[in-house]
Amino acid sequence: MLGIYGYPIEIQALFFMALRSALSMLKQDDAEGKECVERIVKRLHALSYHMRSYFWLDFQQLNDIYRYKTEEYSHTAVNKFNVIPDSIPDWVFEFMPTRGGYFIGNVSPARMDFRWFALGNCVAILSSLATPEQSMAIMDLIEARWDELVGEMPLKISYPAIESHEWRIVTGCDPKNTRWSYHNGGSWPGSSFLLIIQTS
Fold first, then answer.
1. Fewest 10 Å CB contacts: which of 18, 31, 92, 131?
2. How far apart (Å, rounded) are the C-alpha atoms in residues 52 and 146?
3. Which UniProt keywords are listed (predicted)?
4. Do 138 and 159 form a contact (C-beta atoms < 8 A)?
5. In the prediction, which pLDDT does 54 show?
6. Cα separation of 82 and 108, whole Å?
7. How far is the C-alpha of 97 from the C-alpha of 102, rounded, in Å?
8. What is the pairing mode between strands 111-117 and 101-108?
């Protein structure tokens, strides 16, 4: 599912981390290096603003989206992507604790992918894409929803799993993406390692 810039949270967070790494490795003592640094800094600011503003979901933001007006088309529009409030899945209201939040899977015109993706959220914390407040909110959400996200096994890569015929539409009928398999809610031990790093 493509977002406004074509990429879900995992790709955006990894790209942000790559830009920050490149910035620390560049020589800034010549004109070419300075120009490259300026371009990276500009991109980092734009990307962090976009992600922190439009991909972030907490209890307050969920309430705001629920009250969005549709068909707004100006630079002053609150509902920038014309998200239809009825597109909010029912499970989000039960999943979202009053204290906590996370970066949603993706944003596209008229629709948001509200699923939780462990890798994107963990990398957002490690790369400083998430603000300190957002980082704490992500960890608060994991703690509040421990049974759903971790339970008896390693951290689930996404939550909830896509069910029924929707998984065929979204994943292209790939058998490794059936409910609770691989990308569709499955557990990735590597993500648990990222969680351990963040909590220590």
1. 31
2. 24
3. Carbohydrate metabolism, Glycosidase, Hydrolase
4. no
5. 87
6. 9
7. 11
8. antiparallel
Query: Which is nearest to 188 in space by CA: 131, 123, 97, 98?
Result: 123
Rounded CA Rg of the chain: 18
Query: What pLDDT, on the 0 to 100 scale, is given for residue 86?
Result: 79
Token pair of 191 as six digits: 């993500």
Statement: residue 16 has pLDDT above 90: yes
Residue the block writes with tokens 């800094």: 41
Q: What is the pTM of this model?
A: 0.78
Long-range Cβ contact pairs of 88-94 (< 8 A, separation 24 or more) = 88/62, 88/112, 88/114, 89/114, 91/160, 92/62, 93/62
Residue 111 to residue 94: CA distance in whole angstroms: 19
**Residue 195 vs residue 152, higher pLDDT:** 152
State how far the Cα of 137 lies from the Cα of 96, in Å rounded to an integer.
11
**Nearest-5° angle of CA 108, CA 115, CA 16?**
65
**Per-residue model confidence (pLDDT) at position 1:** 37
On whether the CB atoms of residues 97 and 140 are closer than 8 A, the answer is: yes
Encode pLDDT of 39-60 as tens digits.
Answer: 999 999 999 998 998 899 999 9
Residue with tokens 């689930």: 156
